[in-house]
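Weekly puzzle thread! Below is a chain. First person to post its structure in token form gets bragging rights.
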Amino acid sequence: MRGYFSMILHAHLPYVRHPEYEEFLEEDWLYEAISETYIPLLNMFENLTRDKIPWSITMTMSGTLANMLNDELLRSRYEVSLNKSLELCRLEVERLKDQEELLNVAKFNLSFFKRAKETFLRYNGDLIKAFKKFQDNGNLEIIPVAATHGFLPFMKDFPEAVNAQILMAKEDYKNNYGRDPKGIWLSECAYYPGQDKYLEKNNLKYFIVDAHGIMFSSPKPLYGVYAPVYTANGVAAFARDLESSEQVWSSEIGYPGDGAYREFHKDAGYELDYDYVKPFLHSDGVRRNIGIKYYAITDKNSGEKRVYNPGAAHDRAKEHARDFVNNRSKQIGYLKSLMRMRDPIVVSPYDAELYGHWWFEGPVFLEWVFRYIKDSDFKSITPSRYLDKYKVNQIVDVNLSSWGANGYYDVWLDERNDYVYRHLHKAAQKMIELANGRDPETELEERALNQAARELLMAQTSCWEFIMYTETMVGYAKKKISDHINRLYKIYEDFKGQTLEEEWLCEIESRDNIFPTMNYSIYKSERL
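Winning reply:
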């Protein structure tokens, strides 16, 4: 055995829940991720466990995602969405009965959604409990994310706000999994010097940074990115390995771009006759992705697309898994020849939604990676287990960094989104003032302060600035920040003036119901 491989899947979606509407476009983000990523991952875990294949994966679960998965309204809406997909798939099997190639794909699509429903119902819709089962069995290590995926470096002038993101993440994690977390995922892998003190205070043992966060540290890391380092506060930092990441992420050489794989962008919601597909769209009748696709990537530089062949794509995923494991074996063997005092660890973090949602065959690839690792000369491991093996590590000053484009913070701070921070900072000031001011005198006042804390956390979700940067759903992102901050401001003024409106507060509590155990005291300065 020459060393270790650590796969980390970052599962996160922003909190999108709109009970005031019967259906809402952005809620589809969750439904797509459940069918295409989270359920296929659970099926993969089941397959590996059934076949007694050794496997270790670390998976983050953001507070926003976990609370959506726990929400009864969203669960019921997911079932409605799933049933509509199944109904259309059945119609498609009948429609395409005389077109053999397309019929093969239609039957595959129907089978896929049937399995999704079977898995969802088998766990009674409780996917958090499903993932917890594999953590309790010892294969999966779930770690939290800063509570609402807040970009912590831009809160550093408000230490109570940084601490609140960590405190709430830890509290929510314990409620979901019945144990303390071992590590944490910093949103966007964004680190700034001194941030680790909040992790140490909350007994979090490790976090993940991009490669340059450790490579540019001081002093220079003895083992590069292939061993963890400790910060001055004794928290371990693991660095992303660029070589293994590139094999998956790269638009030029990455596996997901292979012509055999399913084409993401040719969706039946846009391809089928409008009157035929209209009953399966939202009530506004606007065409959208519905997750049913018939074509392969084929040639990325050509508009021509072959009909998708599920069997061929499955075989290609197995080939790529073997290639990935062979490359890790060579990489780890070389690293071991240089690292005489310990076994190297190659850390490969990815957005979980890459596997299944963006790269449809991704879960098949992952499953075969672990099947091939079984007979290789290295093992899979979680960061916490590696730390159990190697308790002594170099102490360095981890460098300011993120895993965003260009490696630092410019994705979340440019001319398309910079205006939001003066509002977010003012909102943080008001929340900290409320938490450290007079104690609430009534249950209504305490509920109001708890809701103000929820509103600030939800406004701080880094996805909103990312959406503005990529210029996708910009209007929605701007409205989310504005709505949450304005609600916080109203609570602030009403609390100060003792003019709280219970009817209005009830409505906001029913909409923005994240973190049921929220206590505004997470913003108290004495918690630092």
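Puzzle host: Confirmed. Bonus trivia for everyone else. The two ends are 44 Å apart (CA to CA).
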